[in-house]
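Write out structure tokens for E3 ubiquitin-protein ligase Midline-1.
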Amino acid sequence: MLTFNFLGARSTLGANIYHNMTLYFCSPVKFSFLQDAEIIKHMYCNFSLCSFFVTGLCNSLDSWMIVPNIKQNQYTVHGLQSGTKYVFVVKAINQAGSRSSEPGTLKTNSQPFKLDPKSAHKKLKVSHDNLTVERDETTSKKGHSQDRFSSQSSYGVVGNVFIDSGRHYWEALIGGSTWYAIGIAYKSAPKHEWIGKNQASWVLCRCNNSWVVRHNSKELAIEPSPHLRRVGVLLDYDAGYVTFYDAVGSQHLHTFHVSFIQPVCPVFNVWNKCLTILTGLPIPDHLEGLEPSN
């Protein structure tokens, strides 16, 4: 039997992020006669294809990408998308025949990002690691720019990435704030008004004891746990939706279905206390394969 050892994924920031993964494979029995090997790679987006793979491997090779004639016991796969599950099979081949490994499953992390301090409203303070934003009532000398939130009531900041493909997941830790908004916006979304009050942004908002989702000034009340402390955001740009979850209780809160026409970025408003973002996360297992609903 062949076995897998995975080195890991290497990521860089960008509008289109891809992972490179080096796979190491070996056998518990002596394979001195190993001459060639081929590695088979297949991507699937939900668990239904996992069962299809297990039961239909021999009948579904057309859906696999095959890399033949690997001469060593390692291979680097390029171009793996963020937030995606892959299955790998290694097949050892020589004159006497062939032997295949057990399927190896691997999940790439979502695209990492940080807060962009150059976009932060002058009444907000971004931490030195660019992961926390808090309301700051002290006088600020931040200069005005078209990239900075400027409204007297829209205390916003965006993430330092623009996404135009793939699946991505991040979370926001609610640091005692009772008035905030979390979501996504087009790169062209105006910075002089509340996010969610235009056609270019989609957000979940809390205002004291009221929770709503908002887009283009239309609001829909939602009922999360009163102790909501961590909001998960799952964006599938290609499938056309963004979904909000209670990341602790795994409660689905709302899904916006969108035919995206521009790159989007994560966006946050904070009117009191603070928010901290967690990024570069794998998509939680319980969210894999779920059909998004409203």
